[in-house]
Structures are given as C-alpha cells and as structure tokens.
Amino acid sequence: MIHWHRLDPAKVERAIKMLIVELCPGTQAIDGAGGDDGQDLRWFSPNGLVIVEVKSHADRLTASRKRKIKKSLENAARHEPVRWELVTPLDPSPAELQWFDSLRASYPGVELIWRDRAWLDGHFARREYLRRMVEGSEYTLLQRAAEFDREQAVLAGGLPDLADRVRVLRARTDDLPTGWKIDFATNDGDTTFTVSERFPGAAAHDPLRFTPVFDFPDDDPLAVETRANLDRALDYGLGCTVAQPYLQRIDVNASDETLRLLGLARTATAAAVELIPDVDRTGLPMPVVVEAVSADGTVIANVQVTVEDRTHGRRGIAVTGFDASKTFALTMMIAKLDTDGWQVTFNLAMNPVDGKYPFAVRPAVDVILALVNGNAIQVRAADTLLGPARPPTPAPSVSAPPMARLVVVLDELQRRYGARFLIPTDISARDLRDLEMILELKSTGRSRWPYRGINMHLWPDRLAEFLQNTEMHRGAILARFDGICMTVAGHEFDLGPVQFHCPHMILSNIDALRAADPNNDPEARWLCAPGEHLTISSVSVEPEVSVAA
After folding, report:
1. Parallel, antiparallel, or unpaired: how do β-strands 316-322 and 545-548 relate?
2. Contacts of 323 (CB under 8 A, 6+ apart)
3. What angle separates helix 402-417 from helix 429-444, to the nearest 10 degrees?
4. Is residue 158, in this structure, part of any structural domain at all?
5. What number is the average pLDDT over the span 342-348?
6. Which of 13, 66, 201, 481 falls between 20 and 30 A from 30, CA-CA?
7. Residue 53 banded pLDDT, cuts 50, 70, 90
C-alpha cells in the first residue's frame, strides 16, 4: 500500500506523468515553469486531443484546490480537447464527486474523467520503478535484498551471479514432484510462468485447469464491448485482454498436492487475463487487395494488404494482415455455418500514423473514409473475391476521424507545395483546423478564416486621426496583403497574396490604442460581430487596406 499523503508532491506528480506517458505512447508532457496553459500532458488520440491535469493532492479538496482545478479546465477547454482527465491520488468523497459532476455539466462537449487513488494504486503496484521513485530508499533493491538475505540477487559478481541464480531456480522447478513442468521468463519487470506437460499424457494423471470468472453488467457499455471482444477472441482464436473489474477471480482446479507444490490456492485474483493467439502461418504471407465498394459494386478506394497471420477458434478461423505502412490492420473472420456455407466478417483497425509519410498512409485512409459513408468492404486475392462485400464490423464513425482527415490534408498540401515531411506527433485540433483551411484556400481560392479577429499595424503619425474617425471603428472590412506565411506544427506554408473580408467588424482595443505610445508601432485589432466570420481569398493585386462604415 502506498501512503500517498507522506510522499514528496513533486515526485508524485513526476511519477504520475511518467505513468501516463507509458500508458499512452506519444503523450507530450508540458513544462509548467512558465505556465502550462491548462495542460500538464497532452495526447493526440485517434479521436482527438486529450489533456491530462495531474495533482498530488492525497487529502480532501479544499475550496482553493477546486478553484485551481476548475481554472486549469477552463484553460484546457480553449484547446478544444475531446477528453480532459484529472489524475490525483485521492478517492473522491460524495461531495467531491458532485462537484466534479457539476464541471461535466459546464462542458458538455468534453468528456471529463477523474483517475483516482484506486486507479493509481493498481498501476503503481505493477511498476516497481514508479514505487521506487516516489518512496525513495524505502523501496530500493539493495534494502529488499538484504531483508530477504539474498545478497547474490544484487549481482555483486555481475552476470555470472545472474546465470547461477537462474540455473538454481530452474533446477528447483524441475524437481517439483508433479506432472507439470514450470518454466519462467522476465521481460520489462513482468514474470511469465509457462506450465506444460512434463511428458505427453501427464495432464490426464495430474489435471490442472485455470478458469477465469467474468462479470459483464448489461448496463455497462464498456463491459458489453469487452464481452464482445472476448467472444470474438474465443470464436476465432484472436488475442484479447480482460481486466478488473470484469475479471472477478480465477478458479484453479487441481489436486491438493499440486496446489501445494505450485503455491496455488483454489481461488486466485489477478489484475487481468490475456489470451495469446496460437498463430498458424502455413502458406503465408499472401498479398490481397482490400476494396471499399458502393451499393452498385463500384470500387471507390483500395489498399494493398499482406495477410501474415492465421488463427483457429471454436467457430472458425481468422486471418490478419497489414498495409505496407503498418497503419491499416484487417482481420477477416470466417465462420463455418450449421448449414452449408461460410460467414465472412471484416474487422478494421488503424494504428498511429505519426512518424510516417502521408502519401504512404493515404491509400489506407482513403478506404476508411470511403467506409464512413456507409459503403461495404470486399477482399480480392488476384482475381478471386474472398466472400461477398459486407459492411465492416464495427462500422466506422459517421464522421471522418481526425487522424484520417490529418493524413488527407497533409498529403494534399505536400503535393501542392512539393515538400515531403513525416506526420508530426504534436498535431493539435487547432493545427488540423488551420491545415484544412489552407488546403481549401489553395484548392478553391477562398476559405473561412478559423479565427474571429484580424490585427493591422497603424502608421504612428496617423494614429490620432484614426482614433478621431469613429467610422473606422466598426463596419465592413477588406484587407489585402501581398503575402502571408503560416507556421503550423513546425512547418511553414506560404499562402501567397490574400485578402480578408468581413461585412461587420468592431475595433476591440480602442482603449489600448488611446493609451498607446505612437512611436511603439501601434496595432489595431478588429473582431467579427456576433454571427459574422472572416473570409480569406487568394488575390493577385497590390496590397491595400480599406474600411467601410
């Protein structure tokens, strides 16, 4: 048990950030020394921006703490996240939960999640390096080795000590008087035990069966989804993980002697159970083409996929393949029906695209986008169709996922600008919006400017005249520039000559202009009136600025 309230708050927050980065690869930690703008961590998930707020509070939330958390949420909301998470080693009280629910009501478009002490305890319990980080010398390896009088475990003699210890432990497992052979391995701090028959037929004389017991409430959407994944894994031999709270326990069926020798009880608990596929690669790999087709059979988009794995389950087989960029994953499940014939089901998944070239990922994304519009999928090996066209399961969202939109817009822009660069890892929702605006401008010659305001420098000797002319303070505005460059996600895009237009704008910083020093390059800022927006258009004329009442 971790006594969070006794720990160094700075170490606690650092350790929690490391946990989040480990759980969500690609997460960016923000240095808050100069203000983190409501973002301790940010992660561009497949569904959009996720912002995480980390607090070390291990006791009740005071009014001051609640105000600071609410302020962080307000700042984070300006970045338009799809999800905002509060992570703190505190199990909330009913009153604190009610307060947090009130925040949800204020931000209906953002999913708010509170990761509490129980959540942290579960993850820290499986990560010794994090416990050692927050608990200091109390949890060091040397002290633990001394407590158990296992000096050799600290490897004072180097690798030979490690080899000797492993040989001794392996020999002890081989000497267990049971029909089962025990092997073990470690990887990334986890220990895996492999139990196999000591000799063929030994299981019949010394049965050993592990039966996980699950509970999937019908009113829990995640439970329903997890059960469906488990059924699919059992039906087709696929991989699957079921964790608490849906994993209730594991029943162990064996003789009393075997249980004693292996140190097992009749009932065990575990954080999760994982089904590992038994892969059959006979006759593989095999190239196929995945096609998105309309109702009349027209092929709208296609992507080359290499089938690499085959698995077997209680209902049928599943084959899994990937496109060349390893972004698009297809699983084709083939079930034998009670009557003559087979039932084919397609399952699609998209892996992260950051660090890849847009043109390499584009074919897979085009298929996904075609399926968003309700089209079907079919697989072709050479000239042979592998089953009839069917909708994928689950069906893609009715709206294009941000990841797919990002790939398309970057590929189109890179073609137009003649430049190639990898998809950045730090793309935000605002960056995607700016990129889509640039593409629309370059494609059609005009687009809606994604911001409500526009700034223009004023001639110092004309400032007083400008302030006296009230007709210049509101009305329609047309501003032309001979060239504008935008930097998005670290890359510069030349928009060329453009003009901005809005039928009704209001000068928003008139008080600041009245108090400004004319010699300090005064700058006026106009904001769109309610219900209005700025339009940006490509032009080929000399720059000028005009304001009409």
Report:
1. unpaired
2. 303, 304, 305, 306, 363, 364
3. 40
4. no
5. 82
6. 66
7. very high
Strands (E), 294-429: 299-312, 316-322, 328-336, 342-350, 376-381, 384-385
Q: What is the tens place of the pLDDT at every residue in 413-450?
A: 999 999 899 999 888 889 999 999 999 999 999 999 99
Q: Report the candidate in 82, 74, 88 with the shortest Cα–Cα distance to residue 44.
A: 82
Q: Are 271 and 360 members of one domain?
A: no
**4 by DSSP, 3-state: which?**
helix
Encoding tokens for residue 241? 């993980």
CA–CA separation, 430 and 452 (whole Å): 14
pLDDT at 282: 92
Domain boundary among 247, 275, 303: 275
280 inside domain: no
129 with 10, same domain? yes
Domain assignment present for residue 27? The answer is yes
* Rounded Cα gap, residues 89 and 115, in angstroms: 8
| 90 in any annotated domain | yes
Would you say residue 29 has pLDDT above 90?
Answer: no
The answer, yes or no, to whether residue 98 has pLDDT greater than 50, is yes
Asked whether the beta carbons of 317 and 353 are under 8 A apart, the reply is no
Domain of residue 371, residue span = 286-407
SS3 track for 369-387:
HHHHCCCEEEEEECCEECC
Lowest-confidence region among 140-144, 244-248, 268-272, 372-376: 140-144
Of the residues 218, 253, 275, the one at which a domain ends: 275
Q: Which residues pair with 213 in a beta bridge?
A: 249
